[in-house]
Design a protein that fits this description.
The protein has 180 residues and is an alpha/beta fold. Among the domains are: 44-105, no CATH class; 116-176, Orthogonal Bundle (DNA polymerase, domain 1). It has 6 helices and 6 strands; from the N terminus they run αββαββαβαααβ. The chain has helices at 6-27, 66-73, 107-112, 124-128, 135-148, 165-171; strands at 44-50, 56-60, 90-94, 100-104, 117-118, 175-176. Strands 2-1-3-4 form a 4-stranded mixed β-sheet, covered by helices on one side. Strands 5-6 form a two-stranded parallel sheet. The longest helix has 22 residues, at 6-27. It is flat, with a radius of gyration of 26 Å.
């Protein structure tokens, strides 16, 4: 049987302790295989502004009706009678008389909330809210979209003059391409 010096035994014990610690740590981190992960449902966000007691952005677990949003924000009486559900990222502007106008939340608001901007529906002003996208680039994106139709995937933006892989990698977490 070979004999080891004290220094060699110390190093072996240290390596064994490190390997054991790594094994124990890895076993308790909760790593799941990709197939076992469950996607968290995204809340539906609706912004309501104007003549309401509590203007702001509200999150709902499912698409809300206009009266539900109205009640939440303390809108004026009478409540709207529409039972139509509102999609996420809807903006409701309420006037003094209780009339309302539905629109889309601004790009600044979406980006502040950590939500992606849909390049198929974004206006030039919305696109300019993206970092590194100025008026010229925003116009190129819109012209490309108008001439060739909606983008099918984010990588289609590489066909827009001035957008390379580096710029797209920077923009990709901030944008989305919704189904046309």
């Amino acid at each position: 049987m070979p004999s080891f010096s004290r220094a060699q035994l110390s190093i072996l014990l240290l390596v064994a302790a490190l390997l054991f610690s790594l094994y124990a740590w890895r076993g308790h981190t909760g790593w799941l295989p990709v197939a076992g992960r469950v996607a968290e449902p995204q809340p539906v966000v609706v912004e309501i502004t104007g003549a309401v007691a509590h203007p702001g952005v509200y999150a709902f677990p499912a698409p809300p009706t206009l009266p539900a949003v109205w009640r939440q924000a303390g809108g004026p009486e009478p409540l709207p009678t529409s039972d139509k559900t509102l999609p996420s990222e809807t903006r409701v502007e309420v006037s003094e008389g209780g009339a309302y106008c539905l629109g889309h939340m601004s790009a600044e608001r979406l980006l502040t909330l950590g939500l992606a901007l849909d390049v198929n529906t974004a206006t030039a002003e919305d696109l300019e809210a993206l970092p590194g996208v100025g008026p010229v680039m925003a116009q190129r994106i819109i012209e490309y979209r108008q001439s060739r139709g909606p983008f099918q995937k984010i990588d289609d933006l590489l066909s827009v003059h001035g957008i390379g892989r580096k710029k797209l990698a920077h923009l990709a977490p901030l944008i989305t391409v919704a189904s046309p």
